[in-house]
Each structure stands twice: as structure tokens, then as C-alpha cells.
């Protein structure tokens, strides 16, 4: 039996007071195995640095993706204590990284969504720098606060290449924070960059901002429009195996959006082993006092069409693979890059 009318039927328009959401999937099944023994300590640095560096128009979704009880207790605590953590989604099993992400991505209304691994330390101004690029490049759909000198080599940059070679003023620019590249190498346990990479980035320029060409996806801010181009079916893989390419990178590129990074380095990938410098760096981060949003309005997206995407794909092969040394030499870098 039902008596009366549900009051929500009289006020059925969804309204939100935020425009930027951060989504963090957390998979820490135990704290005893060597791989996971520091994982909770690392995640606490991630969360605390995020709290210190986001503005008041930001909300946070945390996905408990099959965590052990000690980790779940911590996640529940921060959900209860922090008002901006308005979602804690619990799964007793590991849904896989992509499915965990999409459980939040597809159910929220914010036009900007930052996806981050749980081992990222956010540095001051990361959000402002990322949003500045999204504002300055209406064609952009994916922007990371962690630039990489070798991100231009990625396969999912064809729309970005079209922009770079037609209107982006493609050029080499001095690396602003080489220590960011070095820390990333150390965090993944292998060498990625030669000396030239630590000196130069490939950048594109708009009227307002300069951005690095390409980016990784361990932390990146997306326009929500990007995910309209994602696969409709669930991801069948827990992690890697092309899962993030198919559900994060390809939708951005095939949707006609640019893939960029900030010129400076504004976050660190920490890895799974705690080191004393991390705590020292954390203590240096003062809480930023953004009382309201950084963006007044987000410019209407201007993605490229399939024809422009195809041209970008062709140019990527010609200029960035077949004629790379010659073309980069024209741009001023003759050393291996």
C-alpha cells in the first residue's frame, strides 16, 4: 500500500553545486604481502594531498574495490568525516579497475571528472593548471597534471596531432620540472627518459596557455563528454591488457578530443613502497584556500570529426615515425628524442 505522493516528484530536476569530480578506485586486498604492505600508507598520502589541493566545487568518489577490513575502515572514516567525499561505493570483490571507475563515471553529473590511481600525490595548483588548459583549449578532453616527454609516441593522439600540426604551434619547450620525470621513472622501477627527454617537451600553444603533447592515464582529468564515446559493454579484464586504452584513451581520441598535459609537473606517482621524502613533501603542502570554483564556465567542447582524425593518424605516421629525426631536427632538436 502507498499513501500520499513522493515529494521528489514535485522537485524532480537534478541540481548539483559542484562541477569537478575526482574518482579513486582502491584495491588493497591485504597489508601483508610485500606488494601491498605500504599500500594504505601510500593511499593516505594520496587522499590527504588531494584534500589540501582541491577547490570547494569538487566532490570525491572512492570505490572500495575488494579491500581488506583495515582499509575499508579507513575509507569509511574519511567518508564520514569529509563532506566533499560524497560517495563511497563498496564491492566485496575486485570489479577490475575500469568497471570500478565506470560505476562512478556513469552515475555523476559533473562536467569534469579526474580519474586517479590510489598512489598519486597531488601537488599545489594541480587543479588550477589542469582547468586552465581545459578552458584555453576547447578541443581538449583529457589533461594530466603529470607531463611526459615521450607521451607523443602514444597511439591515441591522432586528433591531438591534427590540432598540433594545423593550429597548435607545435614546438619544443624546456622541461619545467625534470625531477618529476625522474620520480616517475623511480616509481615504476625502470628508465624511460634519456637526457634530451629531461630537457625538452613537445608542446602546443593556444592564445592563453601552453600544454605538453599527450599524457598518461594514471591521473588525468576528462570532460564527461568523452565517455559518450566509450564501449557500451562491461570490461572483461581486471587491469591492463588494453582495458584502459579501450575505455579511457580511445574514447578521447576517437571522440575528436585533444590529449594534453600541464607544462609543469603537479603530481607524483608514488608506486607501492613508502619512502621518507614522501612524508617530507606532504608536510610542505599547505591547504589551498579556494573558496569557490576556478572556472566561471567551461567552454563548449569543439571536438574534431572523423576526417580530421584520419588526417592526424596519417600525419602521426609520417612526421612522428617515418620522418621523426628529420622533422624534429627542423623543430630544433637533433639529438635522439
UniProtKB/TrEMBL annotation:
Q: Which InterPro entries match?
A: Nucleotide-diphossugar_trans
Protein's name in the database = Glycosyltransferase family 2 protein
Taxonomic lineage is:
Bacteria, Pseudomonadati, Bacteroidota, Flavobacteriia, Flavobacteriales
